[in-house]
Amino acid sequence: YNDVFDASGIGRIQLMKDRTSVYAQYTLIVDNREDLMSHLSNNKIPYAIHYPKTLNMQEPYIDSADKSEFLNADQLARKVISIPMHPYLNEGDQNLISNTIVDFYAS
User: Is the separation of the CB atoms in 1 and 26 below 8 Å?
Assistant: First the structure.
């Protein structure tokens, strides 16, 4: 995924160079997330929005948090989407998923 999305200019969560990940989820940072979700659904590709609300928008904190302090988190909550990533994801499926997303943004 990394090489394909980096070459296509599609944003993703970046790892620090001295770190690795087990990739429990693979998260992209995208524009037009709602349209991408429809496109993925139409192509029978699962996706998830794991954190639709930032902490400051959760019920216990909504009245106490200064909304201006969480601008980056709020922006990311509207833009992130997780795509399939698991130990049984074969290269063909990975290519299908990444190509479907790249094609969506290329059109």
Answer: yes
Q: Are residues 43 and 100 in contact, defined by beta-carbon separation less than 8 angstroms?
A: yes
Cα–Cα dist 59/38, whole Å: 28
DSSP notation for 38-99: HHHHHTT---B-S-SS-GGGSTTTTTTS-GGGGHHHHHHHHHEEEE---TT--HHHHHHHHH
pTM: 0.85
- Among 13-17, 29-33, 64-68, 74-78, the minimum mean pLDDT is found in 64-68
Q: 46: burial class by Cβ within 10 Å (0-12, 13-18, 19+)?
A: exposed
